[in-house]
Structure formats: C-alpha cells, structure tokens
Design brief:
This protein has 349 residues and is an alpha+beta fold. The protein is 29% helix and 26% strand. It contains twelve helices and 15 strands.
Length: 349
C-alpha cells in the first residue's frame, strides 16, 4: 500500500522482507533476508534516500548503525518505546496521558502483588512482540497464574487491570519534518480475540476527538516524530485510556485509502520525504472490514454500492489479514446498511 501510494507522487520504493512472496513484491523490487542482516541493511541504505518501516517489531538495534548514513523516519526512539509495553505506558504517563493501571511482572510473586493491588480480572501480557492479540492472557482467578506465566515465559511481563470499556477508538496522524501535523478523525474499532474485525469513521464525539488530538500531538512532539503514528484508546466512563501506540501506518487507518482526501499511506510518504502533508478531510461515512483467514466472494461484495475491494495477495492462514474492503457513503445510515450486507459475505477464520 505504501508502494501504491508512492507511484503517483513520483517516488520509488525498495523493500526488505524475510519472504520473497511479501505483498510488496507485486509492486516494487525487494531485498529478501533477515531484517537484522547488516549487509542487506547496508545495501538498502545505500540505494535509498530515506528509510522507514511498517512493522514495529523491526529490531531497533539493527537499525541503529544506519542512522549515521541515512535518515530513519520515524526515528529509533519511537521504535524502541513502542516495542516495550512498560516503556510505552511510562511515556504516556510522563506526558499526562491516562493509561490502564498496571505493574511490571518478573515472576509469580510480582503477579500476586499486582493482582492484589490492581484486582482481578486482569490481563497478563508480554512486554515485547505482542500484537493482534498475541502474547496476552486474561486472568480471572489465582488458579490461572501458573499456566499464564508458563505460556508467556514468566519474565518481562506486564499486568494490566481489565477494563470494561464502552468503545475502542484510535487516532491516526502524520507529522512532517517541519513539525506540521495532520490528524484524521477518530475511528471506532471492533476487535475479537485481539484482532481488528471492522471499524467505522468518523467516530463523532467532539470531546474525545479533542482529547485524542491533544494526546497524539504530545507524543509526536516528545519524540520529534516524523511519519504516521497511531494510538489506540479504550473509552471508559467518558475518558480515554491509552492502550498502545504504533509508529507506522496502521490497520485502523486503512479506511483512509478510500475514505479521505489523502490516505495515511500517502501522508506517511509525504512526511518522511519532506513534502507538504495532504488533507485528512473525510469523503463521507466510512466502514472498513478486514478479511481474516480466507478471502470472501469478490463478486458478491463488488455488487455493494460504494464498496472498494483490497486483496493483499497473501497465502491464506487462520487469523491472517489477507485484505479488506472499504465502504464510503454520504450518510451514516447508508454506510451501516451496506456494512451489514457486506458482513453476510465475509467469514473470519
């Protein structure tokens, strides 16, 4: 999607991926190998003007030696903090952004103390390498502690108080080299098993919109951020609690491809290349539905007015994001009807 957004701007992409069948290979040349391979990284840096990433688990240490030879945007500081849930929450707290009560866990004793102080139920998570519901276990009673610790490795964990939220929302924005910031409207997201199923935008709540805008601006300025950033929140009793951030283009922002004047992908490229940011104005009321595990019947979906179909060209696998569709309508009511029709043709596996 970055390559597709780059072409009209006259930009060319070169990708590094561990798989020769990565979706980007359909549209741009690729280097294939480990993301920590010094020779491949050096070759990538030599052949490019700016380096970026679309996955926050790229090892920050592997990129550090390249910082002296090529601009890396967003910078390593943003990548590092996003790779550790405890560091991420510490940043939010320092910037006066509310978060879920939490505690670091390095073993059974820490978990027992955290559960007593914060209460049950709670969620035990790995501090690193967790996304799309991976690396976390919901705990309801102490009898579940040992198995959860064994499942997650027992160390470098974080325990979070379980939140009863009324909605999950995310804010996506871009910040340029000159500090210019462009923010997209809030989207409301529906997850199952930790994976985004569908989202709608704009999510109309002026008070929460102002809060989210304030919070993402604080993070961007604190990190001297360049590129697209996403922050996911729980809405709890009318307040926003920051759950996590992603220093990259984000699944909850895929609706912007068809639903806004300028997509998150184009604005990411504009930002990291020093170009003026584009308008984030929505073009209507939008729904985005992920295709998970298997692809739906294309013909059925394309009969729905206002629907755009996106196939990533990935091999099917349970729970894997294989594509998505976007529905844009002039009225929220029409969008919702079309979304319900689309969902009848989509089976998540």
């Amino acid at each position: 999607m970055l390559a597709l957004a780059a072409a009209p701007l006259g930009l060319r992409c070169l990708f590094l991926d561990r798989s020769a069948t990565a979706p980007a290979a359909q549209f741009a040349p690729m280097l294939v190998g480990e993301l920590t391979d010094p020779a491949l990284l050096a070759d990538l840096a030599k052949r490019c003007d700016v380096l970026t990433f679309d996955w926050e688990n790229v090892p920050a240490g592997a990129l550090a030696p390249l910082a002296h030879t090529i601009p890396i945007r967003p910078g390593p500081a943003a990548l590092e903090v996003s790779q550790d849930r405890l560091a991420e929450k510490s940043l939010f707290t320092r910037l006066r952004i509310p978060v879920t009560p939490h505690a670091a866990v390095e073993g059974r004793a820490d978990l027992e103390r955290a559960a007593r102080r914060l209460g049950l139920p709670g969620v035990l998570k790995t501090r690193r390498l967790g996304y799309d519901g991976k690396g976390q276990v919901l705990l309801r009673e102490p009898a579940e502690f040992d198995r959860a610790l064994e499942t997650l490795g027992g160390r470098d964990l974080i325990y979070e108080k379980h939140q009863r939220f009324s909605a999950e929302v995310s804010v996506v924005g871009a910040r340029g080299i000159d500090g210019e910031i462009a923010l997209y409207p809030l989207s409301a997201n529906t997850h199952r098993d930790g994976i985004l199923r569908y989202g709608i935008a704009p999510y109309h709540d002026e008070a929460l919109e102002r809060l989210a805008a304030s919070y993402i601006r604080r993070v961007m300025r604190s990190l001297d951020y360049v590129g697209v950033l996403a922050i996911e929140f729980f809405v709890v009793n009318g307040r926003l609690l920051a759950n996590e951030m992603a220093p990259r283009v984000h699944n909850s922002g895929h609706w912007t491809i068809d639903g806004c004047v300028t997509s998150q992908f184009e604005n990411h490229l504009r930002a990291i290349c020093g170009l003026p940011l584009g308008s984030t104005r929505p073009l209507g009321h939008t729904a985005m539905i992920n295709f998970l595990g298997s692809m739906p019947d294309r013909e059925s979906l394309l009969r729905i007015e206002g629907l755009a179909y996106h196939d990533y060209g990935k091999e099917p696998r349970p729970g894997r994001k294989l594509g998505h569709c976007t529905i844009v309508s002039a009225r929220a009511k029409d969008r919702d009807v079309a979304m319900q029709n689309a969902l009848k043709s989509i089976r998540w596996t």
